[in-house]
Protein: Transmembrane anterior posterior transformation 1
Amino acid sequence: MAFPALQDPAIADLSLLRFISAELTRGYFLEHNEAKYTERRERVYTCMRIPKELEKLMFFGIFLCLDAFLYVFTLLPLRVFLAMFRFITLPCYGLRSHRGLTASDRRLLQPAQVCDMLKGVILVICYFMMHYVDYSMMYHLIRGQSVIKLYIIYNMLEVADRLISSFGQDILDALYWTATEPKERKRAHIGVIPHFIMAVLYVFLHAILIMVQATTLNVAFNSHNKSLLTIMMSNNFVEIKGSVFKKFEKNNLFQMSNSDIKERFTNYVLLLIVCLRNMEQFSWNPDHFWVLFPDVCMVVASEIAVDIVKHAFITKFNDITADVYSEYRASLAFDLVSSRQKNAYTDYSDSVSRRMGFIPLPLAVLLIRVVTSSIKVQGVLAYVCVVLFYCGLISLKVLNSIVLLGKSCQYVKEAKMEEKLFNPVPTATPGKPAGKQQGTFKSTQGISTDENGSTSVTNQPVHQKENMPSLLITSNSDQFLTTPDGEEKDISQDSSELKHRSAKKDLLEIDRFTICGNRID
Structure:
């Protein structure tokens, strides 16, 4: 009995030779799946654009950190001097007459001057406290440990730095607001002195932690076989594993970008400290600098390579275009421009601290301590050089600020964010949750959309329906010093309109969410 299928002449004609011939001559048409292949090509182009766009953002962000860092050494001492001059001379003028003066003019010190005085006093106290920490003993204590112990210590220090930074700016903001809060309000704090003590302890402990980091890096530089330095640099590539396989939205990527900017700038300062300590040990022999130079280049190159690979794969896996880095840069520029206004809500250095988690005070204390111990100033000529160097720092600060402000205005204009400078986000009323307060205000602006109809992440938050609740929670640190002295007016709104709605998070509301480990569910 024959099978029916075998009686078909086309099937009966099959042979191995015919099969091989069909495989060799078989054709296909890619245009039948044009959308799929076009998307794949765009992904390749996006990965090729990531290094350029990312480094443009990093370059701009590093100079923002540099501007805030130079402020501590240049303009802050001058502002403290002016505040002290006002503190001494204003009572003499006040004895004449208080007529015609506003409430702010009758103050002994303006709120900004009070904050400057607090920063200056904290710097001076922590600087003298750092003299009781022996750098040489710490160096030899760390050098006596095994390689694996130092590797574990370095990882623990990185985690501790993120944890203490996330809490440190809140401590400083609490001190500034407690010291400048209007006196007619009901007291709801423990007092200025306890907050000041906590701030001093924080800056001192954070400076010690950074010193241990710099010492560990110095030990790695001075090791004979460079094995420790290699292991520490390989730790950066472990960061890729913990990041690229997680779900990222645009806001999450913005947080990570800010954290990477802060981390890269901090590493540059640590490398400067290591070079200063090594050059001092070799009597400032320039030949020794060229011995350190390859290791410095290896550290910098590994940081850049890790950031590029990490961001390239994150954007690939989450379908994020490279244009998003221009929006991130515009948001950072908006912070700078808004802080330069006449009636700004906060100081620029504090704005950078809240946005990126970069707190310049502990790093400045450590750098001053290292420089003063490494460089001996003796003679009139040496003091003249110090004065000239200080004038050079001021010139660099002013030049950097002017260039940054000009570029920031350009980025804000390109992103069409000028109107937001005149329509600031309402601040939260004390005693009300941030999320609840956001629901009591309606945005005065529409939501701009791009060519594909997707909502721009640089717009101010408005109420929209979302399928998934936002994974981010707005930090209150941006709202500590933004409450005006006058009483705020509550705007009533029907509660039924707020049902099943959640506030859409904006890049301008994001600050230090990734400092504690970049945790994204």
Observations:
- The radius of gyration is 29 Å.
- The beta strands are 463-464, 502-503.
- Residues 34-73 form the longest helix (40 residues).
- The first strand starts at residue 463 and ends at 464.
